[in-house]
Design brief:
alpha/beta
């Protein structure tokens, strides 16, 4: 035996080791991806999934935004909730609180739905109109005054007004829907009210246009078609026309007050002294006859129960709650835009009359 060990030929057959065979590479179409190729494909898949998620969210949000107005306008049924968990919680008769809050510009939506629902509900025996508003457009204010007055006269539901922090101009105008019944206008001690008057805002940006070399070059059918333009100074003729519009709206405002406040029917000069656009405190308003009493919403509720002829312990006091829309569910509070409103900024280019206190910017919009 060889001291260096047996050769491969001398080893038993079962102990012999065959040399490794050469391995042929697989064809490209059968070979798996390399490490770098696999990472690239994974990144591509993640990116595509991300894009699909973003696209899906975009579609949902756009559907929500496009459907917000139609949903709120078509959903006329509002949810009732108790005003207080401890009082006015039982009975077949109801006192309904209708809320008018923020700047009054729209003639559809939440406020109108509240009025309609209270009119349909036979168990509602009286209304507490909660006003917390600086006013709004002449048309919207008059629209709600009209429908609230119908609720009182045709549906036979007395109205008691509870003024919050502000019930000025158009807010005061709407409050006149309570009619001539005694002790129906309540204002909180810190309330600002009054501001009886009309204005058509106009902004003269001619100097700014000139500074930046901007010229107004509108093509119009008549020189008055473009009256009130921001790009030039108002002419005397245009100002006279706008003044006639303001005077007519102002006359209607005072007429509505006289029709519903007997204090001013005997002596019109008293109202003329108050109708200067001035804002009054609750104490001043009570002294001058613009309101009946200083009190909180609970005082207005008690008076509404008296007028309804029901018993406090057998009456439910309810208020109406907006049903959530698709947009509000997806975007929360952002679905209800507040504050600056681009559409209202654009509206400034068109003359519009307002029953609104001049201390509140026209671009503030809190009322849907």
């Amino acid at each position: 035996m060889d001291p260096n060990g047996p050769s491969n030929q001398e080893m038993p057959i079962h102990a012999q080791v065959a040399p490794p065979a050469a391995v042929e590479p697989l064809p490209d179409h059968l070979a798996g991806p390399t490490r770098s190729g696999g990472t690239g494909r994974a990144v591509m898949i993640v990116v595509m999934l991300g894009l699909m998620i973003v696209l899906a969210l975009s579609i949902l949000l756009n559907m929500a935004l496009l459907g917000t107005q139609s949903v709120s306008a078509s959903s006329t049924e509002l949810q009732e909730e108790l005003f207080s968990p401890d009082k006015y919680t039982s009975g077949d008769d109801k006192i309904a609180i209708i809320s008018v809050e923020g700047t009054i510009l729209s003639t559809s939506g939440y406020v109108k739905n509240q009025i309609d629902q209270a009119a349909r509900d036979g168990s509602v025996k009286a209304i507490v109109l909660r006003v917390d508003s600086p006013g709004g457009s002449v048309s919207a204010s008059d629209y709600y005054y009209h429908h609230l007055s119908k609720l009182r006269t045709e549906s036979k539901k007395p109205i008691v007004v509870s003024m919050g922090s502000m019930a000025a101009s158009g807010g005061y105008y709407i409050a006149m829907a309570a009619g001539t019944t005694e002790d129906v206008l309540f204002a909180e001690p810190t309330c600002f009210t009054g501001s009886i008057g009309v204005m058509i805002p106009h902004y003269n940006a001619a100097g700014l246009f000139e500074k930046f070399g901007i010229e107004e070059d509108a093509v119009v059918s008549h020189r008055l078609k473009n009256m009130g333009s921001l790009g030039r100074r108002m002419t005397d003729e245009e100002r006279a026309i706008f003044q006639e519009l303001v005077d007519e709206g102002f006359g209607r405002f005072k007429e509505i007050i006289r029709d519903n406040r007997t204090e001013f029917q005997e002596d019109e000069a008293i109202l003329d002294e108050l109708a200067t656009g001035q804002i009054f405190t609750a104490g001043q308003a009570e002294e001058s006859g613009l309101i009946d009493k200083i009190g909180f919403i609970e005082d207005a509720i008690e008076r509404a129960i008296q007028l309804a002829g029901t018993k406090a312990d057998e009456t439910m006091v309810v208020r109406y709650k907006r049903l959530p829309s698709l947009a509000s569910l997806l975007m929360g509070a952002q679905a209800q835009p507040r504050g600056f409103d681009l559409q209202q900024l654009l509206d400034l280019s068109a003359p519009r009359a307002y029953y609104m206190t001049s201390t509140i910017p026209a671009l503030v919009r809190n009322q849907p």
